[in-house]
Write a structure and sequence with these properties.
Layout (H helix, E strand, L loop, with lengths): L1 E5 L3 H12 L3 E5 L2 H10 L1 E5 L4 E3 L3 E2 L8 E6 L6 H5 L6 E10 L5 H9 L4 E14 L2 E15 L6 H11 L5 E4 L3 H22 L3 H6 L1 H20 L8 H11 L7 H7 L10 H8 L7 H16 L4
Parallel strand pairs: 1-2, 1-6, 2-5, 3-9, 6-7, 7-8, 9-10
Antiparallel strand pairs: 3-4, 8-9
Keywords: Coenzyme A biosynthesis, NADP, Oxidoreductase
Function: Catalyzes the NADPH-dependent reduction of ketopantoate into pantoic acid.
EC number: 1.1.1.169
Length: about 300
């Protein structure tokens, strides 16, 4: 299979290396110092699931790659629209653009730009980041990737993607029956974990130790689940309880990518996370005061770092 990894950072770089190790043709699309390092030194993955190093073609121009079977879109949510405008050279008649991003709106934004027929939903459960240019560090999480056609159909291309990802060492691959439900399921956790670690500037262990903060974390999860159901998303009844149990067992020093971006003065995904909860709550009877509070606390930082 021929893959383009659009955004070869913590998630995309990890997937690209694993796919290459499994024998697939992989092209990396990146920028800046990371791109320079990929071109000169290759891609190194330092992972709790096993290290690897690969030399792959890397560019900042999709026209250098041409049409592929799959585009794995792994840019930050606030870059989705810009990335979508650059996808045309990568698209063949049946190319699937798989969004492995945070949030529940990326697939709609992509569909508006390139047509829904090209879009596949995806969810990534992995703690990984660019440790230094050319080096991706995977520190934890199950490296679990969930994906599916937006209408739930088991098409030839989604079965082929499933086979490709299942062939990768260090990847837990899951073909979903209802990808919309899976997107919102992760959304409930990421809004709480990202929002609270960023708002407090502290890891989850400190949040758990503070009664009021831990209650707020739980309420964020519950609010997102309520908004999902109000928008006709079929979330399992125990979704909130499962995430709270999961968060109780996280390493005490666990942060989030949102916290990382905030503390490194990078654009943050606030509008794709807690602020999006408030948007999706509009027109429903669900109140989301905890998500609104996180949005209010982080808004000045989002505005300050919006231009990178």
């Amino acid at each position: 299979m021929r893959f383009a990894i659009f955004g070869a950072g913590g998630v995309g770089g990890y997937l690209g290396a694993r796919l290459a190790d499994a024998g697939h043709e992989v092209h990396l699309i990146a920028r800046g110092a990371h791109l320079d390092a990929l071109r000169t030194d290759g891609l190194t993955v330092e992972s709790v699931a096993g290290d690897t190093a690969v030399e792959l073609p890397a560019t900042d121009d999709p026209a250098d790659v041409g049409s592929v079977d799959y585009v794995l879109l792994c840019v930050k949510a606030h870059d989705t629209r810009e990335a979508a405008a650059d996808l045309a050279p990568l698209l063949g008649a049946d190319t699937a653009v798989v969004s492995f991003q945070n949030g529940v709106d990326n697939e709609r934004w992509l569909a508006d730009a390139i047509g829904e027929a090209h879009v596949v939903g995806g969810v990534a459960y992995i703690f990984s980041t660019i440790a230094e240019p050319g080096v991706v560090e995977h520190t934890g999480g199950p490296a679990r990737f969930v994906y599916g056609e937006l209408d739930g159909e088991r098409t030839d291309r989604i079965r082929a993607l499933d086979d490709a990802l299942r062939s990768c060492a260090g990847v837990e691959a899951v073909l979903a029956d209802d990808i919309r439900s899976e997107l919102w399921r992760k959304f409930a956790f990421i809004c709480a974990h990202s929002g609270m670690t960023a708002a407090t500037r502290l890891p989850v262990g400190d949040i758990r130790d503070a009664e009021e903060s831990w209650r707020m974390y739980r309420r964020i999860v519950e609010e997102v689940c309520a908004v999902a159901r109000a928008n006709d998303v079929a979330l399992p009844d125990d979704t909130a309880a499962e995430w709270i149990e999961f968060a109780e067992d996280l390493d005490a020093d666990s942060y989030s990518s949102l916290h990382y971006d905030l503390t490194h003065e990078k654009p943050i995904e606030l509008d794709a996370l807690n602020a999006a909860v408030a948007r999706h709550a509009e027109g429903t009877d669900v109140d989301v005061p905890m998500n609104e509070a996180v949005t209010a606390v982080l808004r000045p930082w989002a505005d300050r770092f919006a231009d990178g």
